Amino acid sequence: MRPRPSGPNGPRPLTDREAEIARRVRRSLHLPTTMSEEEVAKQFRDSVAWRRARLMLASEELRRRLGDALGPLASWMRGQAQSLLSRAQRAWRQFRG
User: Fold this and answer.
1) DSSP summary character for residue 54
2) CA-CA distance, 66 to 48, in Å (whole number)?
3) In sequence order, which residues have a C-beta less than 8 Å from that of residue 80 and are 6 or more positions away?
4) d(CA 18, CA 54)
5) Could you give phi then psi for residue 47, rounded to 5 degrees?
6) What is the pTM of this model?
7) What's the Cα-to-Cα distance from 67 to each of 23, 59, 62, rounded to whole Å?
8) How far apart are the C-alpha atoms of 73 and 67, rounded to whole Å?
9) DSSP assignment, residue 7?
10) pLDDT value at position 12?
11) Residue-level pLDDT at 1
């Protein structure tokens, strides 16, 4: 559940993530750059454009995290594949002559 947009001290400031989503929405809808992130968030927070920008940001973050997590495994698998390939090439050369 998202935090309340306003409290006893007035509207709360946007989080870094919300500000990034607002910038993406502003770019995707070709809004003027003079329009602040707060204005964009206030006007488009429950729109399809906001949800799409939020999902795109989440997918980019997930892709980056998976890449970071699986990088060592991919490196190990490349090493194993290269080792297997070189052994197969040596065996083929011995078989042929």
Assistant:
1) H
2) 27
3) none
4) 8
5) -90, 170
6) 0.65
7) 25, 12, 8
8) 10
9) E
10) 81
11) 46
> The tokens of 5 are what?
């947009």
Question: Which tokens in the block code for residue 12?
Answer: 């709360």
Tokens of 29: 């809808």
DSSP state of 3: P
Place of tokens 């003027």: 32
Listed in order, strand segments (DSSP E) in the chain are 6-7, 10-11
pLDDT in tens, the chain (97 residues): 455 556 667 678 899 999 999 999 999 999 999 999 999 999 999 999 999 999 999 999 999 999 999 999 989 999 999 999 999 999 999 988 7
Provide the token pair at 41.
Answer: 């968030």
Three-state DSSP class for 6? Answer: strand
- The tokens describing 39, both together, are 């204005």
27, 78, 95 from 22: Cα distances, Å: 9, 40, 64
In which residue are the tokens 């042929």 written?
96
